[in-house]
């Protein structure tokens, strides 16, 4: 009994510590961003997210500090902070890198990333760990991103010519290993063919091209892993549709400063998210 009582007491103390730390960091971060707006901040995005039994406002902001861009994203009982920068390599390319951390009453997460291009080679690498499912710390991490534990992803792209590109993705998302290889060829339109493994083998077919009234990017994966992704971009709107099996789906529409997302997932049920973005970047670039 004493051991059980001690474990219960320690768990309660850990919860109180996370709650106090989360509130303190949130107050400081929000105060700094509000003081910096609109003199220095690049953007603010205000949102409202809801699903069955849960409703929360969301706030995202970016603030340039020297060579770094600092980011803030918050929801009820959780806050995330990030810092990212880049190394310019002249005609060879550019490498961006950064670190993101999240803390909430439910738990914590940390993630490092690097992405960029060197000549014909493109790279995108991510290494992270979360003590709880990530949507407990940020509502935008739904679907395949809503995982706990270790997450490793490495994507590479090699441009064979102006019209041909090879792609390779390998990764680990607790508790699965996965990989995918693809070949893309571009003429008037772009076709992509590939093979992958995620719990079993699957095939990939993608198409990208002009389709009245805009540009359509369409990808289907079928086999042991089944997923359809489509993005239609016009001058006024960008519409995203994702459908996967086991059944989950999301639809997003973005136009001007507004963005709306709705969908269904096994973990979330039916959800909706409405966001509005205030941009300050152009004015600040002119002033500084």
Task: Give structural attributes.
Porin; mainly beta; disordered C terminus; globular; 288 residues; 2 helices
Q: What does this 3D model show about the protein?
A:
With 288 residues, this protein is mainly beta. 15% of the residues lie in helices and 62% in strands. It has an 18-stranded antiparallel barrel. It contains 2 helices and 18 strands. It is globular, with a radius of gyration of 21 Å. The model is unreliable at 283-288 (pLDDT under 50). It has one domain (42-279): Porin, CATH 2.40.160.
Question: Compute the gyration radius: what is it?
Answer: 21 Å
As a percent range, the share of helical residues equals: 10-25%
Number of helices: 2
In the CATH hierarchy, what is the architecture at level 2? Beta Barrel
- Give me the strand/helix succession: HEEEEEEEEEEEEEEEEEEH
The coarse silhouette is globular
How does the SSE layout of this entry go?
Layout: H1 2-36, E1 43-51, E2 54-65, E3 68-75, E4 78-88, E5 93-104, E6 108-118, E7 121-130, E8 149-159, E9 164-173, E10 176-186, E11 190-198, E12 201-211, E13 214-223, E14 226-233, E15 238-245, E16 248-255, E17 258-265, E18 269-279, H2 281-287
Antiparallel strand pairs: 1-2, 1-18, 2-3, 3-4, 4-5, 5-6, 6-7, 7-8, 8-9, 9-10, 10-11, 11-12, 12-13, 13-14, 14-15, 15-16, 16-17, 17-18
């Amino acid at each position: 009994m004493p051991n059980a009582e001690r474990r219960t007491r320690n768990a309660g103390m850990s919860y109180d510590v996370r709650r106090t730390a989360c509130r303190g960091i949130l107050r400081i971060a929000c105060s700094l961003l509000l003081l910096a707006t609109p003199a220095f901040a690049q953007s603010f995005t205000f949102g409202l997210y809801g699903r069955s039994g849960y409703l929360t406002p969301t706030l995202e902001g970016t603030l340039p500090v020297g060579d770094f861009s600092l980011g803030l994203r918050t929801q009820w009982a959780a806050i995330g902070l990030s810092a990212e920068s880049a190394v310019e390599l002249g005609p060879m390319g550019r490498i961006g890198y950064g670190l993101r951390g999240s803390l909430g009453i439910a738990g914590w997460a940390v993630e490092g990333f690097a992405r960029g291009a060197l000549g014909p080679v493109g790279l995108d690498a991510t290494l992270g760990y979360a003590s709880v499912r990530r949507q407990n710390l940020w509502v935008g991490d739904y679907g395949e991103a809503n995982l706990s534990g270790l997450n490793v992803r490495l994507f590479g792209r090699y441009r064979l010519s102006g019209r041909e590109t090879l792609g390779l993705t390998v990764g680990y998302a607790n508790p699965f290993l996965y990989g995918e290889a693809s070949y893309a060829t571009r003429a008037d339109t772009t076709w992509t063919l590939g093979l992958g493994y995620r719990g079993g083998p699957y095939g990939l077919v993608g198409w990208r091209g002009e389709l009245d009234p805009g540009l359509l990017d369409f990808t289907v994966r079928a086999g042991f892993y089944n997923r359809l992704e489509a993005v239609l971009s016009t001058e006024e709107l960008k519409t995203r549709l994702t459908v996967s099996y086991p059944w989950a789906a999301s639809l997003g529409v973005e136009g001007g400063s507004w963005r709306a997302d709705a969908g269904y997932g096994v973990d979330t049920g039916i959800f909706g998210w409405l966001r509005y973005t205030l941009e300050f970047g152009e004015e600040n670039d002119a002033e500084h």
